[in-house]
Amino acid sequence: xxxxxxxxxxxxxxxxxxxxxxxxxxxxxxxxxxxxxxxxxxxxxxxxxxxxxxxxxxxxxxxxxxxxxxxxxxxxxxxxxxxxxxxxxxxxxxxxxxxxxxxxxxxxxxxxxxxxxxxxxxxxxxxxxxxxxxxxxxxxxxxxxxxxxxxxxxxxxxxxxxxxxxxxxxxxxxxxxxxxxxxxxxxxxxxxx
Length: 193
Fold this sequence. Notes:
0% helix, Jelly Rolls, Galactose-bd-like_sf, single chain, mainly beta, 9-stranded antiparallel sheet, two-stranded antiparallel sheet
């Protein structure tokens, strides 16, 4: 979990060097910068940092190409995008040879980590294996969501199953969303700045 006790503990933004042919927009929305990533336990040499290294190595089985969790009941990746942004979709690149390693995906979006467990954090769900002969999948939120944390979890699978994929991209508005509270009317409004 991300628990920050002081300003110095907040993760610093990092720059991801994407390959020149990588699209950084989706339906007019920009790819959002991922500040930090956490995951359930990972298989040795297949850490969560590989999800933002720009290597779309979707074919081979080798170290340095993709993230892979251990075989445990709860398998997930948690992304921090630094501030509250409007989130529209996530894009996942995975290995064509093993689509079963990204089955039954649930995407949640929350302003705080605790929000990710609430029913209203639901963004998207895909049952079963990815459809078609492809290594790329876009999961659109049912409606635009506002949040800082995005959780991609693999649900309802056997304990012996790994959770593995190559890259994770998050799309939405690159403008920060702030809550403005008007005490006179006791209402909360979201604004893009």
